[in-house]
Amino acid sequence: MKLATLKKLIFEKNVLSFLRLGGETQSLYRSAFASAADASGLLSLLHEAPRDSHSIAQALRVGPERHHALLAWLDCGLGVGELALRGGRYHLKGKLSRLLARPRNDVTAAMFAEVTRYHFDAILAAPTRLREGRAYTLDDQDGALIARSSRILEPFVEEAIDWAFAQDPQPPQRVLEVGCGAGHYLSYMLRQWPQMRLSAIDMQAEVVASARAHLKAQGLLERVSLQEAQLFELAPPPAGQGFDLITLHNNFYYFKTDERRALLDHVAGLLAPDGRLLITSSCQGGSPAVAALHLWWTLSDIDAGLPRRDQLLGLLQEAGWRDATHRQLLPGESYYGFLARRPAQAQ
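Structure tokens predicted for Class I SAM-dependent methyltransferase (347 residues):
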């Protein structure tokens, strides 16, 4: 490089400022490649054994006419150090890709995918989407991925379930879970209280399928009434047959602002006279991950975003729910459980 060229880079293009960003840009490239490699199945494939490009193309269903583009993508993985090429075969090399590829890290991989696929996109696309009025919809989400990712919260939700079940001398016998997720909380409750009668619904077919597969693997599928349905489609039960407990885990923000009061009123009508409602939810004011989650939902056609803690408590009280209380489930994070008894005037 000529001295004149170097001077131009330093004094005219301020290349030193770009060099200071080297680590940040490298991290972005690495994250983008690892996320795409995980979603495509490449990481799992290479975790089993090294492969040549033709084996990779076959597994990823890439035709011969696009083989050169596949090689260009794999070159990106080599360039950021996530892949290695030895003897014509690709290997996992980078710490990130090796971590995401391990089956025991499935929840971590799902969380990483949620961040890179949804949180990053919301932050990057927010000004454009706001200007153009383009809203996200549930069809923009992979429901099964979100169910996998939310499993990181399982210990905290289990604590909230224990809290709800300990409120009365006799544990709830009839329970409805609204939003069944991966089915883990259903199997948890059945193991803890095997005599209970358990029902569950979810609005996304792929989530119901995921929960059904989990329950079948646990030998519990026949003990749960599981269906794809909307909460508002459920008719009030006959007198004396209401649920003792209804749970909503990590999905209260799936409902619009003007639906949230109606939701509480409808749930009240499904409960037995002294039945309870348990809500677990992220609330506004937490970590960057929670802020990005709130952003995604405010950019969606739901529009409301995450609830505020005081707002949700106030809504329960305004709707007449008795003994409304809450507790922080995740230390240092705005993740809470809310518990309340059915309003006395509910029909």
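The domain at 146-341 is CATH 3.40.50.150 (Rossmann fold).
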